[in-house]
């Protein structure tokens, strides 16, 4: 068993004072050696964190026992890992816990949740279903379910522009899916608003399906937003569906272009990765701002004014921080 854990979760429960909660949450993560990305919004909480197994367990217990979330379900997706999956800790306040701008409230109405076992059963036995991938184009380019409908979109805000592509499927059973389930809460709700009647969503997303049911019929790998970049999901009938951006040989090894002004997410095999120094083209390889390539293709975002203890200046400026607590 590996020493570290990576936890993926979300919770659509209203948070009354987001800045105060952000501060409390940030301090707890610091005190328990957790790294990751956590979004706090009035509508709820969304996070991916990594840490030692005991620290992650303490974190999950803390969240489940917080009075704010009493009676709600976090549905943690927990994966083993050798080391931290992040290099920093960021806890931010945003308008939404997943950027969508969709005029829906998943606490009021959303697609029917399908647990992984039920999802697998429907895949095998119900010919009337259509899978719809709600992730970005670079995510499904490296991995997706067999036969799934995909959209050429950069983020979920573009979903309304692609609704015409599935308009003819309104009489079908639609199952939406994404990495951990959070996008589908709003995407499936939006489909219902647009007249789709039989709308389901894979509860816990691709990650939970892989953990509980072996990931059968998910081709390629699943793109994740930490320094692993992509993870294997299918342990039953895996298949590589993407090709190296440089040499076109089969490869599901995703890389962020080492030129920060490009930063394209593309599959690049290990050989081409080293030869191109992590760049997706010769012009990017020669770019004066090209970042050093370490073989992973993952680059931590730089944040001006950030300090691990206080978070972003924009948040800490108007908040009283208990410095004594930080040094305990």
Automatic annotation (TrEMBL):
PROSITE patterns documented for this protein: RHODANESE_3
Reaction(s) this enzyme catalyzes, per UniProt: uridine(34) in tRNA + AH2 + O2 = 5-hydroxyuridine(34) in tRNA + A + H2O
Rhodanese domain sequence ranges: 125-218
Region of interest: Disordered: 287-308
Domain of life the protein comes from: Bacteria
Main EC class the enzyme belongs to: oxidoreductase
Pfam families named among the record's database cross-references: Rhodanese, Rhodanese_C, UPF0176_N
InterPro entries: Rhodanese-like_dom, Rhodanese-like_dom_sf, Rhodanese_C, TrhO, TRHO_N
Swiss-Prot/TrEMBL GO biological process terms: tRNA modification
Gene Ontology MF terms in the entry: oxidoreductase activity, acting on paired donors, with incorporation or reduction of molecular oxygen
Record's keyword terms, sorted: Oxidoreductase, tRNA processing
Enzyme Commission (EC) number: 1.14.-.-
Function in brief: Catalyzes oxygen-dependent 5-hydroxyuridine (ho5U) modification at position 34 in tRNAs.
Family, per entry: Belongs to the TrhO family.
Protein's recorded name: tRNA uridine(34) hydroxylase
UniProt lineage: Bacteria, Pseudomonadati, Bacteroidota, Cytophagia, Cytophagales
